[in-house]
Amino acid sequence: MQGSVFRCRQGVRIRAPLTELAVIGNAFHRLDRDLAARRIHDWLQPGGHLALCWSSTPWIGEARWQQALAATLEEWKATLGAGHRIPAGWDLARQRRPDSRVLSDAGFQPAGLRQFAIEHRWTLPELAGFIRSTSFLPAAVLGDQADAFDADLAARLGPHSDASTFTETVSFVYELAQKPH
């Protein structure tokens, strides 16, 4: 397979050559799922695949550091007025009409689902970077408060660290769909 990367903002039309694989990571729920599935179906060559990839997030969990992280993020979202960045009821559409149904309606056939977990040790800079990759507290939202956020994160998570790391069992899932031949 010849490697190509296509980046598309919602609403932008791209004339893409046929490709074997398209991957959407932790973002399908943020897109117009029907539109994205139809367009990707058009871009794939017959027999090509779409992989929807998901992973757990470090602020959801039972460990004390995860609870401290969740509280810290909620406070910073409120402080920066970023609470609106996650629409209320965002998950209802997926509950009413699961991704598998959206893909089927676009012409895909199920090709597999796999789940696995690994232990990961986060450092504070990794957690801060991961948070900046989210839709709710990206670097643009943190703006000139980024240093204060980092200091607060270190102060609040530091007491829960194990040799300056934070251990989590990260869960991964991918749903594979195939365009018929």
Q: Mean pLDDT, as a whole number?
A: 90
Low-confidence stretches: none
Distance between the termini: 17 Å
Give the fraction of residues assigned to helices: 25-40%
Beta content comes to: 25-35%
Radius of gyration (CA) equals 19 Å
Biggest β-sheet: count, sense, barrel? 4 strands, mixed
What does the overall shape look like?
elongated
Across the major sheet, the strand order is 1-2-4-3
Structural class: alpha+beta
Let me know the number of strands: 4
Output the helix-strand order: EHEHHHEHHHE
The tally of helices reads 7
Question: What are the main properties of this structure?
Answer:
181 residues; alpha+beta; 4-stranded mixed β-sheet; 7 helices; 35% helix
